[in-house]
Amino acid sequence: MFVRFPGVDPAANPECKTSEPTWVAVNCGHEIQINDTPEGGGDDPRKTGSVYGFADLDLAHARPTAKGVWNDLEIRVVGQHYTVIRNGEVINEFDNVPGIPFPGRPADPGTSGRQFERGYVGLQNHDGASVVAFRDVRVRDLTGTR
Description:
The chain is mainly β. It has one domain. It is built from 2 helices and 6 strands; from the N terminus they run βαβαββββ. A 3-stranded antiparallel sheet has the order 2-1-6. The longest helix is centred in the N-terminal third of the chain and has 5 residues, at 24-28.
């Protein structure tokens, strides 16, 4: 899931450091990871609920369920505070303060380029091998919420 990214016109968002509309969400928003694959091997170590690259979770902290079981994943973004709730339990929180570089990828924008107060929500169409389904997707304005 991608949250709080601006419109996909790269010319209107030079801070996104991309000329490709498909990369605006990646470079200017935050990806909330969905990935319950086992640890190790060549698989991505960032598991469900990670704020990708900035507040990563391992599999134990992601609190996975059995394959084929629906999960409720709630992502709250209030101001610059991100909370990820899985099946009613907070599994991750992150404060998007300016000045944090993207770990291990200096060419990618850090948190200073991701300071939008409003933005879009995107469901990631990852690849043919990933199996993720979405249902009952809802968006609610949390303006005025603490």
